[in-house]
What we know:
The protein is an alpha/beta fold. The protein has seven helices and ten strands. The protein has one domain (14-348). It has helices spanning 37-50, 74-85, 145-163, 166-169, 175-178, 188-197, 333-340; strands at 65-72, 126-127, 132-133, 217-219, 225-234, 240-254, 263-275, 289-298, 323-324, 345-348.
Amino acid sequence: MNSGGDQGGSSVSDEEWERFLRESEEGVPDAPKEPSARARMVTRRLQEQSGQPEGWRTHRPPRARKRGWYVVGLLAALALVFVALDPGRVTGWFGGGDDAPPARVPSAGQGTLEDPFLGSPAADWADGAAGIGVPAARATGWMGEAQVARALRRTRDFLVASSLDPKVLRGERPDEAVAFINPRQPGEQEFLDTSLTAPSAEDNPLVLFSRFDRTEVRLVGDVVRTRGRMTYREGENGALEVTTDVTYVYPVVRAERGSSQVVRTIVRREVVVNWDDPAKVRTKAGTFSVVRNSVDTTNAGCDTYTGYLTPEFGTGQAADGPTVDPYDRSAPMEARAGASGDQTCGTATRS
Length: 351
């Protein structure tokens, strides 16, 4: 059930974003249960042991909830010199589609209160939910076309509630997002409660939610830039398996009044969910089960487990980990995790 690989389904179509109709059926109490979080972890480990060796400094944390941490390093400073000497080479940084690798040139400017995305590829991205592509619906698994359309819409609603809701970004409990998750999925509610009240390396809410400590930082304005997509296929027990892969760019300043130094925290998060057949899996109408998830972050804290994204406002120093462009979405999350190394503080080429 937890195998990786390519996600099937239809291609992204902006014109189909607003197709949705009716509610899914009520769950059946005596149906089989969705495998627990612990079972997912064991399955994942067995798959990894039978596959290729893990990459350099790669770490697979518990619950198959991967995370990569990066800081903006000295390459950004070198880039400023490059741009100053040859500004014409900057043309075309922001072009390309979702899967096209961006130009390997660090950003040329730091964001300001008036223009928080200055010098960032996100300056050309969409605002909020508009940047999350939703594919056209077709009958898949136990669901008809109308049900698939509704499930895709509600999956995007979860992403908005978990990673774009202003209350959640201010550090409040993501109750609206949690309500999308099947309360009958063994172990998942326990993980959610523990991660939000006593976060740790194993129980880290950032694998699902974006939250800042409002006593430390605050968002600049009310716009978060995004780029991402959904794919889907028939999953285990005929479920509709939906894969979301979205990059969020959050401009922030210190919480103190009068703060003006703008930095950006970048989060790329993959969440895979099952909209289960209630005749085969214990579920609640209108909710999904979490299959697996991964997260990569830039300027969000290295090896810190406070339950919040913790950006730094210093000049930035190069770390001893790998170098990664946080805006490069050409490689899947599995490849990014293998190349960068989970729990490794690498160097981001730009912010």
